[in-house]
């Protein structure tokens, strides 16, 4: 969770997704669900915490604080997604959310500071997205992935003008380009 605005946007997205599925959800109920997803007892507690952490950009002397973007990738099979992201790439599942037993999954994964969201919800993202991820240790990542002998992906390292890149493509045609930048010579 990055800001008060992000939490309200999540609640709005939740209401829209529920409405598209034929379920009406009040704004306050959506806010309460979002607060519980992040481990808080109520929206008031989450809002107070977020307000305390959010920079006040209209106060002299404060600065804008932009956090890293979180890519949202559309998936069509939880089993295949977990096989790829968790088992092959080594991401950890931070949390999962479904509105009920027979509802689509929305989840957060992380690895070494990178956060990624996967969604089965039709309106969240389009398959075939691409995320560019600056990193260090691309050769070590390549060796780690190669050692797993994953039958559906055998990534290589490509040398480009700005660094070394390792591109992986998930079962839904979403791509992650891991790039170790090479410093320019003076």
UniProtKB/TrEMBL annotation:
Q: Which residues form a coiled coil?
A: none
Give the matching InterPro entries: Bleomycin-R (IPR000335), Glyas_Bleomycin-R_OHBP_Dase (IPR029068), VOC_core (IPR037523)
GO BP: any one term: response to antibiotic
Residue ranges of domain VOC in the record? 67-181
- Kindly indicate whether the keyword Transcription regulation belongs to this entry: no
Query: Keyword set for this entry?
Result: Antibiotic resistance
Q: Per its UniProt record, what Pfam families does this chain match? A: Glyoxalase_7 (PF19581)
Q: Which family does it belong to?
A: Belongs to the bleomycin resistance protein family.
Q: What is this protein called?
A: Bleomycin resistance protein
Organism this protein belongs to: Pseudorhizobium pelagicum
């Amino acid at each position: 969770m990055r800001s008060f605005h992000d939490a309200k946007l999540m609640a709005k997205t939740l209401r829209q997704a529920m409405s598209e599925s034929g379920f009406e959800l009040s704004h306050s109920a959506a806010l309460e669900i979002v607060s519980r997803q992040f481990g808080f007892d109520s929206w008031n507690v989450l809002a107070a915490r977020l307000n305390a952490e959010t920079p006040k950009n209209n106060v002299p002397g404060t600065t804008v604080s932009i956090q890293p973007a979180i890519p949202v990738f559309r998936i069509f099979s939880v089993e295949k997604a977990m096989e790829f992201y968790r088992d092959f790439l080594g991401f950890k599942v931070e949390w999962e959310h479904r509105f009920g037993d027979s509802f689509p999954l929305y989840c957060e994964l992380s690895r070494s500071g990178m956060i990624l969201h996967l969604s089965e919800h039709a309106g969240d993202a389009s398959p075939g997205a691409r995320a560019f991820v600056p990193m260090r240790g691309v050769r070590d990542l390549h060796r780690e992935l190669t050692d797993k002998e994953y039958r559906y992906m055998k990534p290589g390292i490509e040398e480009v003008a700005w660094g070394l890149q390792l591109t992986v493509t998930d079962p839904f045609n979403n791509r992650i380009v891991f790039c170790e930048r090479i410093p320019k010579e003076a």
